[in-house]
Every structure is written in structure tokens, then in C-alpha cells.
Design goal:
By secondary structure, the protein is an all-beta fold. It folds into 2 domains: 73 residues, no CATH class; 82 residues, no CATH class. It contains no helices and 13 strands. Strands 1, 8, 9, 10, 11, 12 and 13 form a 7-stranded mixed β-sheet that branches. Strands 2, 3, 4, 5, 6 and 7 form a 6-stranded antiparallel β-sheet that branches. The radius of gyration is 16 Å and the shape is globular. The protein starts with 12 loop residues before the first strand and ends in an 11-residue tail after the last strand.
Length: 195
């Protein structure tokens, strides 16, 4: 029996760099536009837009992300500086996403269906590209509900994720891995096309 059990998608968690060196926690503060009204959760993929601000990445099957949001800071409606797990999308000003934006960082994520049901990938998924599950996060915890989409393993160059490895500790069978290690296949900093 696998341990621990992964019961739901949790977004993308930085684990190390793809060259094997430890991830040391580097992040970049990227502003969020004052009129942006979509929540961004801890573990969500984010993109840069033409204003130079961060928004939720919405390209499940294509598009370029700049990194993963690991928290936010903003001034709330009472005028108080607020570090938080997620960006609520309303009633805040001076908001910034705290983003892991290094193109070489590897992230751990669950494998799930579009509906958020945990699935699995075989070891043969390593080296392939995958789509992203984009679902609204949990406002109680502030955590993302993003994941790698089960069954989308392919060679398609525009798919946003590249599978680097599988997580053996949470396998449910000899060749059924519910978590994978991925990198951003279509990272904005590596794209020849600007924002």
C-alpha cells in the first residue's frame, strides 16, 4: 500500500532544480494589477501579461507560464499590509505574487482528471509533455487545485509541462504513479516571443 495517500490535487510545489541541485527558495515579486479580479492560489501557475503584471495561467493545453505562485502580499480593505497564502481577487491594492520563476526548477504535482479526481501516470510518462488541470483553489487553505492532467502524455511541443520523474512513495500499483515531477515546458523566459 502506498504512503502517504494523495486524495486531491494541491498545485505545484518546488522540489529542486532539474540539474539535481537543491532549490534554495528564490522567488520574484511580480505585481498584480489593481483591477485583476481572479483569485490566484498557492501552487497555481501564473503568467506575465503585457502590463508586466502576473495573472493566473489559463492555458491548459498550450500557452506560456512564468512560474508558480507560492504566496502573495497586498494591502487589504482596512489599509493593512497582508502576507497571505492566496490572492482573493477583490478588495485589495498594492498586490504582489511571490513567484518561483526559475525555468530550471522542478515541481512535484498530482496527476488528476479535469474534474480534480486523482489519476495516475505510468513510468513511461517520463520525458513526455502533459496538459495542466486548472481548477479553483481552496479559500479555506489557500492552496491550488492544479495538477498534471491524467492521460495527456504526448510529444506535443506546446503542452505546458515536461515530466522529469515519477514519485514512487505515493504509487498505488507497480506502474501507477499519482504524483510526478515536472518542469515548465513552455516557460516565458525561454520563449522567443515576448509578452
Amino acid at each position: 500500500m502506498a504512503y502517504p495517500t494523495v486524495s486531491a490535487p494541491y498545485g505545484f510545489q518546488p522540489v529542486n532544480r532539474i540539474d539535481g541541485t537543491p532549490y534554495a527558495g528564490q522567488t520574484r515579486l511580480i505585481p498584480i494589477a489593481s483591477d485583476y479580479n481572479t483569485a490566484i492560489f498557492n501552487g497555481d501557475l501564473v503568467k506575465l501579461v503585457t502590463a508586466g503584471t502576473a495573472e493566473l495561467f489559463t492555458g491548459a493545453d498550450d500557452g506560456v507560464a512564468v512560474g508558480v505562485c507560492v504566496g502573495v502580499q497586498y494591502v487589504n480593505s482596512l489599509g493593512q499590509f497582508t502576507p497571505d497564502q492566496y490572492y482573493p481577487g477583490t478588495s485589495v491594492t498594492d498586490a504582489f505574487a511571490i513567484v518561483v520563476d526559475d525555468p530550471m526548477v522542478a515541481f512535484k504535482t498530482a496527476v488528476a482528471s479535469d474534474a480534480g479526481v486523482i489519476g495516475s501516470a505510468a513510468r513511461a510518462a517520463v520525458g513526455s509533455n502533459m496538459s495542466v488541470v486548472i481548477n479553483a483553489g481552496d479559500t479555506a487553505t489557500g492552496n491550488s487545485a492544479g495538477a498534471a492532467e491524467a492521460g495527456t502524455e504526448a510529444t506535443t511541443a506546446t503542452l505546458p509541462l515536461r515530466v522529469i520523474d515519477v514519485v514512487t512513495e505515493t504509487a498505488t500499483a507497480a506502474d501507477a504513479f499519482v504524483e510526478v515531477i515536472v518542469k515548465l515546458n513552455t516557460h516565458q523566459y525561454n520563449s522567443a516571443t515576448g509578452v
